[in-house]
């Protein structure tokens, strides 16, 4: 999500040079914080709705769908519904898929209500009231999803959710599930 800011120089080459430097600094600082495909995903802080520790390392060998969402976000709720169905099918078929849903900046009370309301869904919910996890992933818009391969590396990153994008997303997840799990000795 690297945005190029164009600074219009009004006088002299020094203004243009300063504008260019500022533009590049802004662009590179925005890109530096966002995990990219091939990167090891940042660690998660916190516990899930059952008190388990949020540990992506423990999910190595699984395909992980890590999504940031909030209860007030309509597209997030559509995505969560789809991911819950996907996780249910994966569980029924014995597939190594784990959906980890990070609740974006909602307070503890709201998170508890959400966890109770979603208790029947086969999703791991992680509370991120202060936005620590979102900051590590450079999340500033939701829904925001990272696909993590069996090898523990980020495969792709998606911002937003539409039904049109669903086929492509499911194809990505399916392709990752078809890959062999990493060798246990590595």
UniProtKB/TrEMBL annotation:
InterPro entries for the chain: AhpC/TSA, Thioredoxin-like_sf, Thioredoxin_CS, Thioredoxin_domain, Thioredoxin_ResA/DsbE_sf
GO MF annotation terms: antioxidant activity; disulfide oxidoreductase activity
Signal peptide location: 1-32
Pfam families reported in the protein's UniProt record: AhpC-TSA
Presence of the UniProt keyword Signal in the record: yes
Keywords per UniProt: Redox-active center, Signal
Keyword Ion transport assigned: no
Domain Thioredoxin: 30-178
CDD domains: TlpA_like_family (cd02966)
Protein name: TlpA family protein disulfide reductase
Upper lineage: Bacteria, Pseudomonadati, Pseudomonadota, Gammaproteobacteria, Chromatiales
């Amino acid at each position: 999500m690297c945005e190029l800011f164009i600074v219009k120089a009004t006088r002299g080459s020094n203004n243009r040079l300063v504008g260019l430097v500022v533009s590049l600094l802004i662009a590179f600082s925005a890109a530096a914080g966002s995990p990219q495909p091939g990167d090891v995903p940042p660690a998660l802080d916190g516990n899930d709705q059952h008190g388990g520790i949020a540990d992506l390392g423990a999910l190595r060998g699984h395909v992980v769908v890590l999504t940031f969402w909030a209860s007030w976000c309509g597209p997030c709720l559509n995505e969560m519904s789809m991911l819950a169905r996907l996780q249910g099918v994966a569980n029924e078929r014995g597939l190594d898929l784990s959906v980890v849903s990070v609740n974006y900046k909602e307070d503890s009370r709201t998170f508890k209500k959400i966890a109770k309301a979603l208790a029947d869904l086969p999703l791991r919910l992680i509370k991120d009231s202060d936005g620590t996890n979102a900051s590590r992933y450079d999340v500033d818009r939701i829904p925001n999803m990272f696909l993590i391969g069996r090898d523990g590396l980020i495969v792709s990153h998606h911002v937003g959710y539409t039904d049109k994008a669903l086929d492509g997303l499911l194809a990505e997840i399916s392709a990752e599930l078809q890959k062999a799990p990493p060798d246990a000795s590595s």
